[in-house]
Amino acid sequence: MDTIYANDHKNVALFFPSPIQQGITGSENFVFTYNREKEQHFGLLQATPGRVSNLLVISDSGAIFSYIVKYSNDLKKLNYFIAASNSIGNVIPVSEDNEDIKKDEGLKEDSAKSISYSNENYFRKFCSYLIEKKQGIGKIKKRKNDIVLSLENIVFEKEQLFFVLEIQNRSTIDYEVNFLELSVQTEKNGKRKSMQKLVQEPSLKFQMPEIIKEGQSARFIYVLPKFSIADDKVVMLDLNEKNGERNLKLKVKQRFINSPN
To answer: Which terminus of the chain has a smaller tally of CB atoms within 10 A, N or C?
Structure first.
């Protein structure tokens, strides 16, 4: 892989052949910024002193670009014009269906509660990619009776939020899922403030498990139309066991919802 150098007092610009859909650095001392609301061809890289890391960028065509990134006080190059031939692969396998996905303009013309067939096809492939990723947003988990519900990541992509979730069954009894509900709730502030609850319906549930065997775990993804929440609100994940009482409630604070990966 080629190496790109950056520091904390200059912007290093990377220009890609297709608009950027996602950019990920492997270490916190490197920051890659790009327009998440309106896809653009360029992003900016900055760094603070630290270990060597890597940068992974995915374009709207599904092309994958990967680079080693290093900190350097002296930058000999500030602009990188990246050719399509530098792609190391494609997140979407080449097929006839991909032409429809590339031509699809995303969810702007879809309803908030449904997605088109071509979008669903693309989102399922993107979910497969996220399931294998190790990137996370920190420890957000709830444990009860040896059942652990974790929110591993929230990713913004094509006007949707991808909630990467995991259920671990550390008990000696199989766990059968009745439902997992995601809602926006107002945090209680004193006895007089009532709780408001607005359930958010997923556009897609990817690899949602029905049962988690004893000692096993299951990763899955909820895809929801993009939303944000106010300071006094949280997202609540309610996991309910079928024919059992091992129910969990996991609270997700505003900063994780409003600043996804």
So the answer is: N
CA distances to 7, 225, 233 from 195, rounded to whole Å, are 47, 23, 10
* Spatial separation of the C-alpha atoms in residues 17 and 219, rounded to whole Å: 33
- The pLDDT of residue 195 is 61
**Interval 197-209: pLDDT, tens:** 888 999 899 999 9
Sign of CA dihedral 125, 118, 20, 252: negative
Q: Show the tokens assigned to 14.
A: 């990377």
Cα–Cα dist 142/151, whole Å:
9
> Chain-centre distance of CA 121, in angstroms?
17
Closest CA to 151 of 168, 137, 161: 137
pLDDT of 162 reads 95
CB proximity list for 42: less than 8 A, separation 6 or greater: 13, 14, 15, 16, 20, 34
pTM over 0.90: no
Cβ atoms of 249 and 221 within 8 Å: the answer is no
CB of 64 within 8 A of CB of 57? yes
Q: How many residues does the chain have?
A: 261
> Cβ distance 193 to 171 under 8 Å?
no
- Angstrom distance (rounded) from CA 160 to CA 179: 21
Conformational region of residue 72, where left means phi above 0, alpha means psi within -120 to 50, and beta covers everything else: beta
Strand 79-81, strand 12-15: pairing = parallel
Q: String of b and e for 136-150 (b: at least 16 CB within 10 Å)?
A: ebeebeeeeeebbbb
CA separation for the pair 22, 156 (Å, rounded): 8
Cβ(14)–Cβ(65) under 8 Å?
no
- Retrieve residue 205's tokens: 């549930």
